[in-house]
Design goal:
CATH architecture: 2-Layer Sandwich
CATH topology: Beta-Lactamase
CATH superfamily: GAF domain
Number of strands: 6
Oligomer: single chain
Radius of gyration: 14 Å
Number of helices: 4
Number of domains: 1
Bound molecules: methionine sulfoxide
CATH class: Alpha Beta
Order of helices and strands: HHEEEHEEEH
Helix content: 25-40%
């Protein structure tokens, strides 16, 4: 069955909105994304703290990359460039920091507040080129929802 991206987006939006605080909203976003998208093997959120991306909630195998400096890896590149990065074949990208040997493709969508990076949504797939324009639009929409939830935080 093809994925109904609009339905997934509104389901995640409802779930995030009903969570009372930011950290619960992050956890809920991760679980909703993972449940809705069969090709998303690893789903996690990093938050920017003192120039480093610090791993928050995630689903999938534990990653060795729990702290990533801005500028390192695909995660660090997305934070430095302040834009979504899609990598169709991680083995062909020198920036890639391996998390699982089975990973073939990755997308990282920054969570922005104005010009400031608050964090990012990072997703790995065991399928090559798993992330298209609809995935990008979905994850950028979820990032915008999470930015609103994180807005009250000063860190
Ligand atoms: N692959 C990421 C590192 C994080 S793991 O995928 C969870 C990167 O290259 O930045």
């Amino acid at each position: 069955m093809p994925i109904d991206y609009e339905a997934v987006r509104s389901q995640i939006g409802n779930a995030v909105r009903e969570e009372p605080d930011a950290s619960r909203a992050l956890e809920r976003a991760v679980s909703e994304i993972k449940a809705a998208m069969p090709d998303y093997t690893w789903v996690g959120i990093y938050l920017l703290q003192d120039g480093e991306l610090v791993l928050g909630p995630f689903l999938g195998k534990p990653s060795p990359h729990t702290r990533i400096p801005v500028g390192r890896g695909i995660c660090g590149a997305a934070a430095a460039e302040k834009q979504t990065i899609v990598v169709d074949d991680v083995s062909a990208d020198e920036r890639y920091l391996a998390c699982s040997l089975d990973t073939r493709s990755e997308i990282v969508a920054p969570i922005m507040r104005g010009d400031r990076v608050l964090g990012e949504i990072d997703i790995d797939s065991d399928r090559a080129a798993a992330f298209g324009g609809k995935d990008r639009a979905l994850l950028e929409a979820v990032a915008a929802m999470l930015s609103e939830k994180l807005g009250g935080r000063q860190d």
